[in-house]
Amino acid sequence: MVAKPMLGAGYLLQGVRLITRPGLRRFVLIPLAVNILVFSLAIYLGAREFAAFLDLVEAQIPSWLGWLEWILWPVFALLLLVVVFYTFNLVANLIASPFNNLLAEKVELLLTGRPLQDSGSVGKLIKELLPTLLDELVKVVYALALAIPFLVLLFVPVVGPLLWFLYTAWILAVQYSDYPMGNHGLKFREMRARLRGERGLSLGFGAAAAGLGMVPVVNFILMPSAVAGATAMWVREFNREHARARYQGPYESRMTTRWVRLEIDHLSGRIGGEILLGPLQGQRLESITTEALLELLAGGCASDPDSAEALEVYLSRERGQRFAERARARQEQEPRSAPPRPSGTRMSDDEARAILGVATSADNDAIRAAHRRLIQRMHPDRGGSAYLAAKINEAKRVLTRVGEAA
Question: Biased composition, Basic and acidic residues: where in the chain (predicted)?
Fold first, then answer.
């Protein structure tokens, strides 16, 4: 099984990529500036006060103890790093929280193509400023209250630091998941309940955020990246409405065979999907062990060439499996520019739109842009798949032909 913690960490990495997208950068700059300002101010004030403290100490002790300064400064630097990470990061989040709600909203729009009701604006920002700040205070109180037993256990060798890291991971998952979930009206208690329902996923996301926060300079992008990553995690893992509707976002491709549906994220290149037939019917690919998928590939799925090749694509890209001999045998049998289809049939318009992730109203320019974006990730020369590239190219031909006819 794909480890849930690794999947959670993957969402944070996806958040790092998402904040570079045009249309999202402006929602990143203000929180980033706040983080830099607070972080720099904290270091300046801390260093100034500590220098004044050392001057006071030096005036009270003999001159031969002046070497103590060389020990106290490194100790102070370490303590300052801890204080800034755990205290001032909370303050920065508190100040920037209204902008984080807007960022979460825009990321969700990018991923799903569906705007929230009462979509974000300056008026909404001002209207929700006080409730948002109060919600941030609730999270701060929750984090401080929960920290007490973990601080006591921190003095237990080995176990204590590990528990403290898990505490930090949980708090960060709660902190950043609250923005997309709060946009949908989830109360703090319900939000925590959903995260507890997927502890491995949540802790994996939080642990990755904690690790990123410990890297100097890089930690400046932690807040916007974590908000974007938590939003992607909400859309794909926690949003029950999304799971029921199974609607397709504008940056998502779907390729359906008899046994398998592949879902490809254009932005990250990540492939997921679902088994549509057989003993594993209805289960997500991400939740099935590699061994079970290989058994399915060798069993019933082998009766349908398209399904077998689609499953091979998933196992190759997401599980590191290699099927070079099978691919070579297929290529020797029939070099092809598109997947074989029964005589007299062709890819339907709906299937082509699902593959490219474009709406019914998309014109030829939008179709070509979607094709270019997708083929860059899925072309065999870039580590992709000949099967996917063929499907993508066929979808473009079908839709551009339809557009020209119209």
Answer: 322-335
Dump the DSSP string for 61-72. Answer: S-GGGTTHHHHH
Whether pLDDT at 189 is above 50: yes
Task: Quickly state the pLDDT bin for 202 (edges 50, 70, 90).
Answer: very high
Which tokens sit at 71? 């020990």
**Max mean pLDDT range (246-255, 288-297, 316-325, 329-338):** 288-297
Q: Which residues of 176-208 are buried (b: 16+ CB within 10 A; e: fewer)?
A: bbbbbbbbeebeeeebbebbeebeebbbbbbbb
* Dihedral (CA of 85, 86, 92, 96) sign: positive
Residue 108 to residue 235: CA distance in whole angstroms: 7
Structure tokens at 357: 């992730």
Measure the CA–CA gap between 198 and 238, rounded to whole angstroms: 9
- 258-289 confidence digits (pLDDT tens): 899 998 887 767 788 889 988 888 888 888 88
Partners of 252 in the β-ladder: 265
CA distances 124 to 120, 149, 328, Å, are 6, 39, 57
Query: DSSP assignment of 87-112, as one string?
Result: IIHHHHHHHHHHHHHHHHHHHHHHHH
pTM: 0.61
Contacts of 309 (CB under 8 A, 6+ apart): 330, 339, 387
CA distance 196 to 200: 9
How far apart are the C-alpha atoms of 141 and 137, rounded to whole Å?
Answer: 6
